[in-house]
Write a structure and sequence with these properties.
The chain has about 475 residues and is an alpha/beta fold. Helix content is about 35%, strand content about 20%. It is built from 14 helices and 21 strands. The strands form five sheets. The protein has an eight-stranded mixed beta sheet with strand order 7-8-10-9-13-19-14-15, sandwiched between helices. The longest helix is centred in the N-terminal third of the chain and has 22 residues, at about 145-165.
Length: about 475
């Protein structure tokens, strides 16, 4: 689904939208430029963060959104999203918030576009919602490049949300692959799909083992943005479990709900590559989408089975519900074979991430502190919450196996599950010039999905978290290569 058309205007008076939204700061008296504080108070407007109020002032239909007492870019992005989310029945909106910098304007554009999102799916109600959004830039120096950046980033988040929100009966690995092919080719990108026969020939034992219990076979999709002037290469790897029952290590019924979102990592890396192409970033970006459905049948992988991964490492399966790391390991080996400058993987990998960091903060781990810090910093620059976590050296020995090179889990262990999964993945990162390739692992299990109430620009359902942060990271890497 396409995002609303975005544009910049100089003054609120230039707006042709059906409704103009004004920002209100909190304090002893609520304040909005051009409006009497007594009028605002009389309307019950306090400036409380994300409070949205419609009114008719001097014969004009207007709306007000509370900013609280913070005018940072991050706050502006959130309240712009809250305002548009509350006003999605209005086809065209203008936002007059107190912006002073280019980053402020970009934040409002992004927040507004993201707040306009809704997944209609199979609902009979297919009303279009917000179609046009104009942002008042005031004195801020803004070019059309800023609009293009907001357009690409927001569309990438919408794409991720749409894919992740799709019911699992409508998004098998094959159907997922077909969507990537269609969207990739429409963007002029190279797309390669490995079917189950090719996966078997090329030794992708992890993806095959996870997918063999389903009648809908697995796929490994590679999508690439490769501009001629690129001097750096980054490989992204995304977990794409289109539904996760836990396999023979069956999940409880309550834990199985929302497992359609277990493919969000794959949706993320796909959308990021398409956005990078739209922005013409001068950096080569390859994304591997590791797609499988983890179901129960007579052909399911069993606990105690030993599988051989891409590259030859053998793994004893001790828990079939620790399947994400198996498909990701195959993807990471393939990523390493290209000997890129860096590897970033994105996965809804562990419930332990939610226990450690909650539902709004993603965990970031890796083998290079400087690279991990750069990924965290890039995310925070666009208002995403990420937190660096360690991979302690005592984790890997917990995965010792009597019959294989590694076990995929330590049954009965509840300590540091997010870190243990990262320690497993680290074993599949290859070398370049005699040293391990810089690698960052993003565990987005909690933040990928909002099962509570909508907030800011975040709807209920898929959130699209880390999409914008990854785009910022890749943009910075492309500039440093010039």
């Amino acid at each position: 689904m396409p995002i609303p058309a975005l544009s910049i205007i100089a003054r609120p008076e230039d707006a042709t939208a059906e409704l103009t939204v004004h920002g209100v700061t909190a304090g002893d008296e609520p304040a909005a430029q051009g409006f009497d504080p007594e009028l605002l108070s009389g309307l019950g407007i306090t400036g409380k963060r994300e409070q949205v109020t419609r009114a008719v002032v001097d014969g004009r239909a207007v709306a007000f959104v509370g900013l609280g007492d913070d005018l940072s870019s991050a706050r502006l992005r959130e309240v712009a999203g809250a305002a548009v989310r509350a006003l999605r029945d209005v086809p065209s909106l203008a936002l007059a918030l107190p912006v002073t910098t280019t980053d402020d304007v970009l934040a409002v554009l992004e927040g507004a576009a993201l707040g306009a999102y809704r997944y209609t799916g199979l609902k009979r109600d297919q009303r279009p919602g917000v179609l046009e959004i104009a942002v008042v830039a005031g004195e801020a120096e803004v070019t059309e490049t800023v609009v293009a950046m907001a357009q690409a980033a927001s569309q990438a988040v919408w794409t991720t949300r749409d894919l992740a929100n799709t019911p699992p009966n409508l998004l098998s690995p094959v159907e997922f692959a077909d969507r990537v092919v269609a969207e990739g080719e429409a963007s002029g990108l190279s797309v390669v799909v490995r079917d189950e026969e090719r996966l078997r020939r090329e030794g992708f034992g992890g993806i095959l083992a996870v997918g063999q219990g389903s009648s809908r076979p697995p796929r490994l999709v590679t999508i690439e943005h490769a501009p001629e002037n690129a001097t750096r290469h980054v490989v992204l790897v995304g977990k794409g479990i289109t539904f996760d029952s836990g396999g023979l290590s069956l999940k409880p019924a309550a834990s199985m709900q929302h497992m359609k979102y277990d493919m969000t990592g794959a949706a993320t890396v796909h959308a990021v590559v398409v956005a990078a192409a739209a922005l013409q970033l001068p950096i080569r970006i390859t994304a591997h989408l590791c797609l499988a459905e983890n179901l129960v049948s007579s052909t399911s992988t069993r606990p105690d089975d030993v599988i051989t991964m891409r590259g030859g490492t053998t793994v004893e399966v001790t828990n079939t519900d620790a399947e994400g790391r198996l498909v990701m390991a195959d993807g990471l080996v393939l990523a390493s074979e290209a000997m890129p400058d860096a590897i970033i993987d994105v996965a809804t990998l562990t419930g332990a991430q939610q226990i450690a960091l909650g539902n709004r903060v993603s965990g970031v781990m890796g083998n290079d502190d400087a690279f991990v810090d750069a990924v965290v910093r890039a995310g925070r620059e666009v208002g995403e919450q990420l937190w660096p976590m360690p991979i302690p050296e005592e984790m890997l020995p917990m995965l010792d196996s009597e019959v294989a090179d590694l076990a995929n889990a330590k049954v009965g262990n509840r300590a540091g599950g997010m870190l243990l999964a990262a320690a497993f993945l680290a074993e599949f990162i290859g070398e370049r010039d005699g040293a391990r390739i810089p690698w960052a692992h993003l565990d987005i299990a909690g933040p990928s999905t909002n099962t509570g109430s909508a907030f800011g620009f975040t709807p209920v359902g898929a959130t699209g978290v880390t999409v914008r942060g990854l785009l910022r990271m890749l943009s910075k890497m492309s500039r440093s290569a010039e």
